[in-house]
Amino acid sequence: MDANGSRYHALVVRDDWLGHVPEDGPWEWLPDDAAHPAALGQLVLKPLLFEFKASAAAALPEPTSRAGGVFDAYGNLYSLTADGTAIRVWSSGSGTITDFWPLPEPATAEPAPGAFGPCAPTVPATPLVMDALTVTTGHYLVVASIAAGGLLIFDLHGGGPPLPQPWTHMPAPEALLALDDGGIALFSAGMLHRLGPDLRPCVPRVPSPSAFAPGPAPEPPPPAPPCVLPLGADATAVAALPQGRILVMRFKLDGLYLSVIDWAGAETVSVGPLEDLIQDTTAGRSESQLSSRTLAVEWPEEGDGFNAIVLGASGDQAFRFKGDAAGNFELLREFIPLRRYQAGGLASLAPGQVLHRFPAARAFYAGGDRWLPLLTLSRPRCEREGELVGPEWDSATPGCVWHRVALDARRPPGSALKLQSRAADTPEGLRLQPWRDEPDLQPHPAGSELRWREPAITACKEVQTLTCLLQAATGRYLQLRILASGDGQQSPGLASLRAWYPRFSYLQHYLPAVYRADAASSAFTERFLALFEGELTRWEDRIAAAQLLLDARTAPRDTLDWLANWLALAFDGSTGPQRRRALLRHATRVHARRGTVPGMLLAATLAWEPDEVDAEPWLAAPESLPERLDGVRLQELFGLAPPLAASAWRPGQGRAALLARLGGSEQLRGDAAREVQLQQALGFLPLAAREEQALMTSWRLADLPDDEPRPRQDAFDAYLDATQPCAPLRQRWQDYLARRWRRIALLNAAWGTGWRGFDRIPSPLRLPAGSVALADWWRFEAQIVRALGPAHRFRVVLPLPGGPGRVDFDELARRRAAVERAVERDKPAHTVAEIRFGFELFRVGEARLGHDTRLEHGLLRRPELAALTSASLWPPFVLGERDLGGGQLTHPRPLPPPDRVGLDR
């Protein structure tokens, strides 16, 4: 409701729009976020599949069983030549295609005249013809050959020549499939023949009677998959799926069908004809012809399910059908062109496998003399016209004058939107009213009216608020109709629609009655003043809602930085709007703890954790952050100073015990042997004595007094005045004594001395004589001086993000950089901070056991990365950019399992 009491009916979310769109209509919902179907998106003209218009030349021949290729675990692609006499390999490292087997015979030089040699030239051997190949999960390359009388098995781990595997009466192979259990399946003439993990043909189990007396009946073994699975004479191509399922393409009288079948013979409902699915979604509505012998399964890099790839018979285009676990298939409206395809077949990568040379490709086709990635080309096509009839909106006011319509929409060049309306006081009368054309929709200069929603789609510059003033929409009920049109390549998008009512009349409220005397002129004056009313009401709304700008929960996104300036808050560029609103609400707590340990933990946690994580509990109670099991840790380095050894001297043992350990000498400085003796007795070296000894040597003083000299010595006074700025440890010693004793008289009484001031006490070069003075000296050297190195230094320890999924190293680097900026901004000026990951702390002399210890794996030792072999997931080391354990020097090559028996041993 605005300042004048006008309200609106609206269509905003997906269900609002789809409730008025017929199922077979030309409209389709384009979600803004596929993970949240209720998110604000756009209603667009239905996208269509772009079909390449093939030339009049003859269609390509159907590929034979030798067509197609297969990848191994390292990304190398194996395929047969057109005549089947050689195996070619496309190396993932070099990108070259070479002969894998048989290797060419080395050239032999002709014998010299008069030398021994063959009487007749050697007859070349007839090349072996191979029919199909595949790579098993055990990393064996298996080739089926009728000419060889069975199988040829290559050990891709151990290398060497192939091992012949005879198979009597082997059927003519049309395709070989790799199964999950390590075996393979041979497809021939509508039959699927299974071979076990030992790569031997499966033999049916025949129970034999026992000659012994029957005993207790044993438990029946689990049913084994059948050795031969009949698929039917109409099965033309097959592909393997996980969990023992087979994707089957069937050629029937009315076209091609796709279905999923398991080894028990259970088949899901077939989907097809595929030609009809393509025809229904094609811009030209032409009848597509598909290849009945080319089928491949494509595994998306992210997400569930799989894609079935089918080629056009002309070899110019591929079609992708998205499948799910239930066996349902949906045609994806994507244009996948083929370049120089000559019926060479397809090859697809295994799930989770990525080629570093083609990171975006999941399938490849044989184009010319090389393999090319199967990529999607952007060729948008859509319906050209669409009509959308809105609901019958009720104002609950007879004779209501409907005010205006605001439409958040995207109107690209070549598209148009037309608005029509009709109004009446009864629903029956509304349906009898003719549609009235409204004025053209014009962009509203103020932008969207739904700023409180802050959807991503309205933040897009292409979406604008189009508005028009309703001319003669008078009645209790209103209905709108939108006529959309496009050029077939771009479609307008409808995001939200609002119809405002009733109209606040300046003519009725502010002008004398004489202006309403004539009906024609008053109608014009009413519409004319409504133009100004719309703009002035917007100003009145902003004035009435000015207090909302001061509340972080209701302030528009653009005003958050303005509010932060009032509270002296500085937002990082990577901080999202929700996190900024939370910081504004808890600004007092943030300022009160800035520079403290909870404040630094809070700043680092907010910078490290993604914006999707709720920050309210951290901001409300920053003291609870150290208790998070998987949270950021802060280590104050003075706490990492190692304690003194148990055998080191303590003041409670007395001065005599220390002198006994030091050989009776009281000197705290000396040669290397003396320093070793001091280290063993005290557990540390007196650094203040080392500093004082160096100053004395430069000043050429023979000795320093242990008490105030009597009479006064000018040389000692001059020495203190000249060296005081150069003796930081002496200054700390004097400050320590001043804080401990407060007055020099108390120190003299306890020490038995007569010093005139704390600033005249030098660092001791000998063991103090009294027990109190000796204890003060020990506390200063053992506790204060030893803690000076890590003082005012702290370390922020970052945890690695947990959970399954791919580790994004670039995202880790961005989040670490955000933590560095936050720590540098909020830390006290006199402190020094460093940022490390948890796995970096385990170094010699730095690992500690305590509440802030994190037992973490390095990036390359993460469980979700240990099973992957793709080099593209692990970036190479870059000096100064990558962390230890965050990269690799060479491509990983998984070793074979220890129980694997190679063909060469």
TrEMBL record:
InterPro entries linked: Tail_protein_I, Unchr_phage_tail-like
Region (Disordered): 416-447, 885-905
Pfam families tied to this protein: Tail_P2_I
NCBIfam families: tail_TIGR02242 (TIGR02242)
The protein, known as: Phage tail protein
Protein source organism: Pelomonas parva
